[in-house]
Write a structure and sequence with these properties.
about 425 residues, mainly beta, 2 helices, 39 strands, about 35% strand
Length: about 425
Amino acid sequence: MATYYVRASNSSDGNAGSISSPFKTIGKALSVAGNGDTIIVRGGTYNAESALNITQTNLTLQAYEGETPVIDMGWTDGVPRFANHPGFDNDEDATIKMSGSGCTVDGVTVQNSPGRHFTIAAPNCIVTNTRIKDAFGAGMIQIGADNATITNTIFTQISRRKVYNGEYWIDGKNRPPTEKISNHPHVVGPRSHTSTWDNVQFYDCYGEGFSNYTGYGATWKNCKICDTSSPTVYLNYSPGFTMYNCEVYFTQSYRRPRNGKLGETFTIGDESQVDKRGKDFYATTQDVEIYNNVFVGYGNGLSFGGDIAAGKDSGRPANAENVLISNNTFVLHPDGFEDDIYYSFLINRMTYDTEPFVFPNGKQLWRYQRNVRIENNAFYGRIKSSNPTSRQMDAFRFRNNYFSVAPPSWITSGSNTNNIVGGA
């Protein structure tokens, strides 16, 4: 296996790529590297003239020990520096696209992208010790990326925070009519299963901090999300998802989601898109464990919610089955009390179908909740539920929880035992 070196200064793409005769650009190193090779990048700033596509299998792109290479896409004032910048919302373009299985990116900083920074589009890839900052679109998207591992990585100022033609574009406003803007600092997309995030941090990002979209068997641990929009953590039909030892905080009240409401910190709400894409991407959020986490927000702390509407391309049922939420703390920030639409726990627009919902194109969808256990948690703030049916009430079990404010009576009655209601 070969090793190639890249250095930003005193180098040339006409060199041999050795440590004493390094290439000047990462793109040149990628063009000569083969499967299993290593590219070592020296410290310095690399002004990327095109997206970097890692097509080789088991290739490693890593920083030289003790140095930090910065890959800069040049999006600082809204005017692209290069004509072939990646698009705003294109799955095929990114600052770095990992399309070869088993590849690794280690120790780099990527910044100033007019679109997204990473697309992981192959299995068994690793991103570690990496800083992902200043992107107009998403920080990272996973599509067909089974067994991805993201560790010791920080996302900052991702999604909808750049200037274009002298105007700040925030949350999709004042954007070009032909361009779309991703609203996810990190999204686990279709066909991306059994991935792991360990010690991943998000700061000062618009859009959803972490959205798990049809990603089966994902694990999220020892992570921190601070100041994103809403929902901060969004399970969007996410079977087998596990989250533990994580912290989610809103510390700045001006962070607001698309609809202008303050952000939810944790949401289970499935979005069925069977009409929109002509395919049935729907799956129930089931076999989920959420434990030993802290959620502090201006909006709803824990939210089960969704809706579905005939005649629309997509609907949002809140299906949940075999979900355990235990030993967490959910806190509604005092500023959230100013408006009575925010709660530390919200059950909203739930549906338990006795027959399937039928979309306009004939697709059928069942909506239900089963075996949702909420145990040993502390809820500081108001509690609300929509008018549940007996089946919905039977689907939830509240045990050994602390509520600072009295919840709806059904939550502390019947088989819901040992719950404590304290002072507000």
